[in-house]
Automatic annotation (TrEMBL):
Subunit structure: Monomer.
Molecular-function annotations in GO: carbohydrate binding; peptide-N4-(N-acetyl-beta-glucosaminyl)asparagine amidase activity
Cofactor: Ca(2+)
Gene Ontology CC entries for this record: cytosol
Annotated keywords: Calcium
Name this polypeptide is given: Alpha-1,2-mannosidase
Boundaries of every Glycosyl hydrolase family domain copy: 256-679
Length: 699
């Protein structure tokens, strides 16, 4: 079967791709080097923005930007917006997309108004549209607003009808996170200062500096309660506001502003999004392509760039630092360390160098499980950062383990083993530390922490072996965090060999996995068991994972568990991933790209086997053609022969023209570039059964 492909995001990449094709007879060029449409045009930014189905918004933003200009609606969801709401309270300038605790951010609310009383001027939506980096809305009172963002600066354009008008500023506005303090200075047509607010779940505190200018003369009125008005001349029919953020100081925020016109900023924002999205090319069903890029878009919003052009940035202790690498902050590592972060390591390795350095910096300047009191941006949580660093190191990224060794040990020594799931998760970190200490040739210490990690078996036998107890299907039973005993008992990613032995061997392991999935005990609405669908790959029946991943990604599923109950009596019966505002399972947050990245990996045909080990399990991709392209000209192409949605099983695998008798692949094999050809089948096969990859804490 002939498989067609295109990949090109630049002429240089296209050149290397064409050279590679000379040695890949199964592939032909189907389109020219320049895509007819920009990839960003396929993104639906309204996906997951209604109800408790993702907690996302259509806010205008830029890849990994701490600035996000979006609508504040009534009623609102976690990120400040509800797709079905018509009443707008104004527009805010940051938010953490897809997270819980009812959201965080929502700083600097600006409301355009008519008349002389902002509270009496209602904003009722009549139309809206949006695309990556851009958002536009019209109101019944004839006010129109449009926004675009490039890096950490944004441009807001407002059209007004005749009459009195102005802007209302609320500098203490937040979402569910608490306001802490602010200072501002008004001068002519500008306002600048800083805002401090609590991080997600009100644990730590972040501080952002800003500089805002209005392009028309205004009269300021300061109410002295963090709220101001800027009155425009009644004759003005439009006005533009430029806003810039910085984690360093007001001077850096001010210097980032430029004079580009709105259309130029829009173009630059679109170009920025296409640059990152084009690293992965898929070709297949047109509607599924739109879903894919809409979800890929969500994986590239955080962490946030916090460093300036001159290399300056604020560390998590508030100190001013400098780095040659681009530095990031804004973590949801517990949520996305198994999906979104590994995806960025492959798709955007040049950025991931800075992300790795930034996570390492947490240990150098102050790391808390959630957040410190001096965060340079909004953030969520950092558990399992040590696992991410081990994973990055084994994938070829530089990590200064020697410089942070003492902090790594201190962090692991204070881990919590008091609850059943905490014991399993803490054991994972202890294992990661043992592997890092081995790198540092601290063999005795390494052995000590490996022994500590092995204690997960004792905890597992105590709380997870017996599944006949009455509370095993109850969310939060025995102090569990957002999961059940039945879901957490699969969490031993670093030692599936040991877990299989605990369960009684391969046959018993398969039986228990079968029972788990056949009885709909799995919960895709949260992350505790998000790795479980891939766990048949460690058994003699890897084909069951292939079928299961396909079903969860694109087929109808039954889900009994939500984040606000135990085994519900009213199950969710539908596809999990839909390209619509109510996209996900009820109560399923996207969690900073975690759940979007799960789909992206499944769509590409491989997913991390164990974070901390540079290995991926294979499945049949959701497209006939998938390609990764990198700035160095290398291309990794995945072609599926005999492709069909009714063919979820792998019958044959070839890598660079040679048979690959396994259903897993290494990070190095992917990043070298080349061609992976997967032959799909309607029925299960024995492919890879004799050459499985099973994590083993002793190796």
């Amino acid at each position: 079967m002939q498989v067609s492909a295109i990949i090109p995001v630049s002429s240089n990449i296209m050149k290397h791709f064409l050279i590679a094709l000379l040695f890949l007879p199964l592939i032909s060029i189907a389109q020219s080097a320049s895509p007819k449409h920009t990839v960003s045009e396929k993104v639906n930014v309204f996906l997951g923005s209604s109800g408790d189905h993702g907690q996302m918004t259509p806010a205008a933003t830029y890849p990994f930007s701490m600035l996000s200009i979006g609508p504040q609606t009534y009623p609102k969801l976690h990120a400040g917006y509800e797709y079905k709401a018509k009443t707008f309270l104004g527009f805010t300038h940051n938010r953490f997309e897809g997270v819980g605790c009812q959201g965080s951010g929502g700083n600097i609310l600006i409301k355009p108004y008519l008349g002389n009383n902002p509270s009496a001027s209602a904003l009722v939506k009549t139309a809206e549209s949006a695309a990556p980096g851009n958002y536009q809305v019209s109101f019944s009172n004839k006010i129109k607003a449009a926004f675009t963002v490039v890096e950490k600066q944004g441009l807001e354009h407002y059209d007004f009808p005749a009459g009195e008008k102005g802007f209302y500023f609320d500098l203490k506005h937040t979402l569910a996170n608490q306001f802490v303090s602010e200072q501002h200075e008004v001068g002519g047509q500008s306002i600048s200062g800083y805002i401090e607010a609590k991080t997600t779940c009100n644990v730590g505190t972040y501080k952002i500096y800003y500089y805002i200018t209005i392009d028309k003369p205004v009269k300021w009125a300061d109410s002295a309660n963090h709220k101001l008005t800027a009155t425009l001349d009644a004759s003005e029919s439009n006005a533009e506001i430029r806003v810039s953020f910085s984690s360093v100081d007001v001077a850096h925020a001010k210097s980032a502003l430029d004079k580009r016109e709105f259309v130029q900023m829009q173009t630059a924002s679109t170009r920025g999004w296409d640059e990152v999205l084009n690293h992965i090319y898929v070709k297949g069903d047109a509607e599924r392509e739109k879903l894919f890029y809409s979800l890929l878009y969500r994986t590239m919003q955080s962490p946030y760039v916090i460093s300036e052009k001159d290399g300056s940035y604020r560390a998590t202790d508030g100190s001013l630092q400098h780095s040659k690498e681009t530095m990031y902050n804004g973590w949801a590592i517990w949520d996305n360390y198994r999906t979104q972060l590994p995806l960025l390591a492959i798709a955007l390795p040049e950025r991931y160098k800075g992300i790795t350095a930034s996570i390492s910096n947490l240990y150098a300047f102050g790391k808390k499980d959630y957040a410190t009191q001096h965060e340079p941006s909004n953030t969520v949580r950092t558990e399992h950062a040590i696992v991410v660093l081990l994973d990055a190191y084994r994938k070829g990224f530089k990590v200064d383990f020697k410089g942070i060794c003492d902090s790594l040990i201190k962090d692991v020594d204070r881990l919590d083993y008091s609850h059943p799931e905490k014991a399993l998760e803490s054991s994972y970190d202890a294992w990661a530390l043992s592997q890092i200490l081995k790198v540092l040739k601290k063999d005795d210490l390494s052995a000590r922490y490996l022994k500590k990690a092995a204690e997960y078996k004792t905890y597992w036998k105590k709380d997870f072996e017996d599944v006949t107890r009455r509370d095993v299907d109850q969310v939060s039973a025995r102090g569990l965090y957002q999961g059940t005993i039945l879901q957490y008992r699969w969490f031993a990613p670093f030692d599936l060999k040991g877990l299989i032995e605990l369960m009684g061997g391969d046959a018993a392991y398969i039986r228990q996995l079968d029972h788990f999935f056949e009885n709909d005990q799995y919960n895709h609405a949260n992350e505790p068991d998000i790795q479980a669908p891939y766990m048949y790959n460690a058994s003699s029946q890897p084909f069951k994972s292939q079928a299961l991943v396909h079903k969860l990604a694109v087929d109808t599923v039954v889900q009994y568990y939500f984040n606000d109950n135990s085994r519900g009596i009213d199950p969710f019966i539908d596809r999990i991933y839909k390209n619509k505002p109510d996209a996900y399972i009820r109560t399923m947050d996207d969690d900073a790209g975690a759940n979007s990245a799960w789909f992206v990996f499944a769509a590409c045909g491989f997913s991390p086997a164990c974070v901390g080990s540079p290995v991926y399990y294979l499945n049949v991709p959701l497209f006939p053609t998938v390609s990764f392209a990198w700035p160095d000209g290398k291309v990794f192409h995945i072609a599926t022969k005999n492709y069909s949605d009714q063919h979820p099983y792998i019958s044959k695998v070839m890598l660079n023209g040679k048979i690959l008798d396994r259903t897993w692949i290494t990070h190095e094999e992917i990043m070298k570039g080349g061609q992976l050809v997967i032959t799909a089948s309607e029925k299960p096969s024995e492919t890879g059964v004799k050459n499985t990859w099973v994590s083993d804490m002793r190796k």
